[in-house]
């Protein structure tokens, strides 16, 4: 790989670690690439689809002329391995905020959970969480929410293609979900809890696929301080 190769266009498959923002991961790679390949100051690089800090998994990074591919990749179907905890909620719908509204789940059965999950397969109306990167009047929703401001999120159409590999070990439920662009798995977790009548939130999320790209082909080595790209 050379500087010319990178500017002509290259795609990196990154396994984003927990508690890194997508921006931090891309910025780290940009710094390493520019330093090691003596790239110009305006070298283009960006990611195709944001992952929340509390999520891990596949983050596709495009550089050079391949940044033009970002919209196409972002539009591709996604797949996630998901873990939710039922009987309790959080304001952020994930582990960023503390647990609230604990409910008794002794009456909840695996059959009820499976039937609830089935109801979300297909086109659904979904309201994004207030702790999200969606812009409201030019400001990120999560910035407004963290500042204590009231945030009104509008519902949107999204599609859940499948929910499978379901494993129930109460209060935790694991499953794999395939979905369209713009789906918030945190909102899905919250809505499943509402369907069950006991609440739920997302405890773990790992993106495993974007279109034809798979997590098995990704690496987090690029983010290590001692990692160096192979040069001719």
TrEMBL record:
<dbReference type="InterPro" id="IPR020103">
    <property type="entry name" value="PsdUridine_synth_cat_dom_sf"/>
</dbReference>
<protein>
    <recommendedName>
        <fullName>tRNA pseudouridine synthase B</fullName>
        <ecNumber>5.4.99.25</ecNumber>
    </recommendedName>
</protein>
<dbReference type="InterPro" id="IPR032819">
    <property type="entry name" value="TruB_C"/>
</dbReference>
<dbReference type="Pfam" id="PF01509">
    <property type="entry name" value="TruB_N"/>
</dbReference>
<comment type="function">
    <text>Responsible for synthesis of pseudouridine from uracil-55 in the psi GC loop of transfer RNAs.</text>
</comment>
<feature type="domain" description="Pseudouridine synthase II N-terminal">
    <location>
        <begin position="42"/>
        <end position="185"/>
    </location>
</feature>
<keyword id="KW-0413">Isomerase</keyword>
<dbReference type="Pfam" id="PF16198">
    <property type="entry name" value="TruB_C_2"/>
</dbReference>
<comment type="similarity">
    <text>Belongs to the pseudouridine synthase TruB family. Type 1 subfamily.</text>
</comment>
<dbReference type="InterPro" id="IPR002501">
    <property type="entry name" value="PsdUridine_synth_N"/>
</dbReference>
<feature type="domain" description="tRNA pseudouridylate synthase B C-terminal">
    <location>
        <begin position="186"/>
        <end position="223"/>
    </location>
</feature>
<keyword id="KW-0819">tRNA processing</keyword>
<dbReference type="GO" id="GO:0160148">
    <property type="term" value="F:tRNA pseudouridine(55) synthase activity"/>
</dbReference>
<dbReference type="InterPro" id="IPR014780">
    <property type="entry name" value="tRNA_psdUridine_synth_TruB"/>
</dbReference>
<feature type="active site" description="Nucleophile">
    <location>
        <position position="52"/>
    </location>
</feature>
């Amino acid at each position: 790989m050379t500087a010319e190769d990178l500017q002509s266009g290259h795609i990196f498959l990154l396994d984003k670690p927990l508690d890194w923002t997508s921006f931090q991961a891309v910025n780290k790679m940009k710094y390493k690439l520019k330093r090691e390949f003596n790239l110009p100051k305006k070298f283009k690089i960006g990611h195709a689809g944001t992952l929340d800090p509390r999520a891990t998994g596949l983050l596709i990074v495009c550089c050079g002329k391949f940044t033009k591919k970002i919209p196409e990749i972002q539009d591709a179907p996604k797949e996630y391995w998901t873990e939710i905890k039922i009987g309790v909620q959080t304001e952020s719908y994930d582990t960023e905020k503390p647990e609230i509204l604990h409910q008794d789940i002794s009456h909840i059965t695996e059959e009820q959970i499976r039937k609830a999950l089935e109801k979300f397969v297909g086109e659904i109306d979904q309201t994004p969480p207030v702790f999200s990167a969606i812009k409201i009047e030019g400001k990120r929703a999560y910035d407004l929410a963290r500042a204590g401001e009231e945030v009104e999120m509008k519902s949107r159409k999204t599609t859940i293609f499948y929910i499978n590999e379901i494993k129930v070990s109460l209060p935790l439920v694991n499953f794999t979900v395939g979905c369209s662009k713009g789906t918030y798995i945190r909102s899905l977790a919250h809505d499943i809890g509402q369907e069950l009548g006991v609440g739920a939130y997302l405890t773990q999320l790992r993106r495993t696929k974007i279109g034809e790209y798979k997590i098995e082909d990704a690496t987090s080595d690029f983010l290590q301080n001692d990692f160096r790209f192979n040069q001719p």
